[in-house]
Amino acid sequence: MQFNGDDGRSLWLDNLEIFDGLRNLGSGCISVEDGKISFVGEKAGRQSPKRSKFDEVIDCSGLFALPGFVDSHLHLFSLAAFNAGYDLSHVSGTTRSKFQSILKMAKETFDKQEGWHRFYGLDSFDLSISKYLDRHFLDELFPEDPVIIHFKSGHGALLNSLALRLIDLSETTDEPPGTTFIRDLEDGLLTGVILEGEELLGAKIPSIPIAQLMQSLGKVFEDTSSKGITTLVDASRNNNVSKIEMLSEFLSSRPLSPHVVMMPGMSDLSRFPREVGCYSDVYRKVAIGHVKIMLTASSGHIFPSEEDFLSSIRKAHSLGFPVAIHAVENECVSIAISALENDFISGDRIEHASELVDKNIKDIAAVGIQISTQPGLITENGERYLQNTVDPSILYRLESLRKHGITIGFSSDAPFSQADPMEWISAATGRNVSGTGVILESSERLSVPSALNMATYSGAVVSGVADRKGHLRRGMDADIVLLDMNPLTTEISELFKISPVLTLSQGSSLYSQM
Length: 514
Description:
Layout: E1 11-19, E2 24-33, E3 36-41, E4 56-59, E5 64-67, E6 69-74, H1 76-84, E7 86-87, H2 96-109, E8 117-122, H3 127-130, H4 135-141, E9 147-151, E10 156-159, H5 161-166, E11 180-183, E12 190-195, H6 198-204, H7 210-226, E13 229-234, H8 241-252, E14 259-262, H9 271-275, E15 282-283, E16 286-288, E17 291-294, H10 306-318, E18 323-327, H11 330-342, E19 349-352, H12 358-367, E20 370-373, H13 376-388, H14 398-403, E21 408-410, H15 421-430, E22 432-433, E23 438-439, H16 448-455, H17 457-462, E24 480-483, E25 500-505, E26 508-512
Parallel strand pairs: 1-4, 1-5, 6-13, 7-8, 8-9, 13-14, 14-16, 17-18, 18-19, 19-20, 20-21
Antiparallel strand pairs: 1-2, 2-3, 5-24, 9-10, 10-12, 11-12, 15-16, 22-23, 24-25, 25-26
Helix pairs in contact: 1-7, 11-12, 13-15, 15-16
């Protein structure tokens, strides 16, 4: 078995087990012409084209075919920045001295970026680490350099004293709306921890050099392609016209890349229809997606106000954009549902929806709201959920959502979780909390076919690209992944071991081990 990877060649993929995004088709074949699927089905089918007309015929015995995976919610530039910085995601259960040693080694071996030391992925909920999250702890190691440590949650960061001074943040600085400066309980002074301060920090801290960021972004595309992901949806709150122009220029310079959808942020929304396009338009290789709207309680109170929140939804809808509402906590989810009950258009969705009670699920189904969620967090953060959630049974209620006919798309929220679809599928079907042997609410387990659907076709639906992606049928883009094992016959505990051997985007190879 060999695949030469030439672009634009017509292909016949023979002797496959096929899941078309909706159901299992069993053994058959797939043909690809001009970047589109021209046939899917049994080899003996009367509509089957002749093999002899294809440039390349590949015997795929033992492989499993399905549509390219869709990551319906991640953060491309944050992921690129994460990969360009120093990774602290491996740090857990450590002592103060060991943590200091890790940071000291990074200081000595990892280059600063625009004068700043940048760290990413620290688990601020780890009790062995959280007690050291204070600017004075960083000051001991970095007395002369500004430092920022971005938390794994994506909702906070720690800065040392010099960094605070460089961004003009002092004891008397007013908190921007929705942002919280954490203070010491004893003396009331700033600890250096800032919650929900992405816009403030982005405006004040020098950006990573564009060349370095783009190089890292290229690596992101390589990594996600190796996991079988062919569609990426950037759901960042601060997406603007400049970012879509930067991303489109980068994609235009590459011969091959995944399909990318970018959600506009609210702050720059008015410019999109005038300068780059409206919902579902494609601007120089970048499709324009839903409008991202934040509704969060992570800073200690719900933000934005109800009036501003409703105004954002109305503005997006008036311009023809469906909305994608960030809502994690049950209280936020309930507010989001209530708002959409009064102002809804087709395609509106809620991001995360991590905590759901029965009424939420019934109301979501009644309105027709779609969901983009991250089952991988069950495995990655399950132990913390069990410790800190009053009622873990309300977390990631995937099977209950499915039973109510709600369309669910899987996603990673990378860099805050892993962009690895087989990890999502493993977590959704097993619901095992890593390292504990505990299953998080077994009644919410999905079947493997349901999980495959949510990682492919349903992911394309919630991303607004199901007219081209997510389904292996004639006329669709030839976004195809071949896996080395059949997930329908693999033990659930072994699903995470399955790997892609070939990833095709519109018939061209993004990744191949064949």
